[in-house]
Specification:
This protein has 255 residues and is an alpha+beta fold. The chain is built from 7 helices and 14 strands. Helix 2 (38-49) links the parallel strand 1 (26-32) and strand 2.
Length: 255
């Protein structure tokens, strides 16, 4: 059942006792609904071989609560960097290393939603253009999904203090800090119910952090697809550089 809130003041930051070399300071967090896609598992195994601790976490049907539980435990275990990777996202080890090389408190990769011609993010400026691949680079966003998102301990500490988030009782001594609890915002006169990852981004940005993304990173998002005649006679063309211009208002995606 749901945890009962026990509102305690934020504790001091946990010592970085989990750090074991450069890779060991960064824990890979993989919430799993049903299974991990083989292409994603291949990347996770490669990360483990490179020295990264990988946590595959099953059993959280409430994703907002689940992410909060997972993050609270990872921080209590002393990790300084938390990298979220969804179990249906395809990536390379070099993509993780590129994110870490920026030395930013919050930075991720952009990928498309499944079954929709939309990206799992929201722009700061609805009229801007994004260049992916060659010619791309770092860009500031309003919201970014957590399917491939690197976050630093400092983000969680400041978010917790700024928003006065309580420590709630949970299944482990670490408890639960509701970093990902969904929020409802007023947006141009209408109520906007944010997903758990966009809610985290909102908390981070209002606490003073920029939501950054690296558009040079190519990510895959695995879903179901119905093959028809045309697929037997042509192939999807992949580009080294791809530009998307958002001339019309961008609809906020929901996963």
């Amino acid at each position: 059942g749901p945890a009962v809130a026990a509102c305690d003041p934020p504790p001091a930051a946990a010592p970085a006792k989990a750090a074991r070399g450069a890779a060991g300071k960064c824990v890979i967090l993989v919430p799993v609904g049903r299974h991990i896609e083989p292409a994603c598992e291949k990347g996770l195994t490669a990360l483990e071989q490179a020295g990264y601790p990988v946590r595959r976490i099953y059993g959280h049907s409430d994703i907002a609560r689940g992410r909060s539980v997972i993050a609270t435990q990872a921080l209590a275990d002393g990790f300084d960097e938390l990298l979220w990777i969804d179990s249906d996202v395809v990536f390379q080890v070099r993509d993780v290393e590129r994110l870490r090389s920026h030395r930013l408190p919050l930075v991720g990769g952009i990928y498309p939603l499944k079954g929709k011609r939309r990206l799992a993010m929201t722009l700061l400026d609805r009229g801007q253009a994004l260049v992916f691949g060659k010619g791309g680079g770092l860009i500031e966003l309003k919201y970014l999904a957590t399917g491939f998102l690197l976050t630093h301990r400092s983000v969680y500490e400041k978010v917790r203090a700024h928003h006065r988030l309580p420590l709630c009782r949970g299944e482990t001594p670490a408890g639960i800090v509701p970093y990902f609890l969904s929020v409802i915002l007023d947006d141009e006169g209408q109520s906007n119910y944010l997903s758990e990852d966009f809610s985290f981004c909102w908390r981070a940005s209002t606490a003073g952090f920029k939501i950054m993304a690296d558009t040079t990173i190519r990510l895959g998002h695995i879903g179901s697809y119905t093959y028809m005649w045309e697929d037997a006679g042509r192939e999807m063309k992949r580009e080294d550089s791809f530009k998307i211009r958002f001339d019309r208002p961008v609809e906020r995606p929901s996963k």
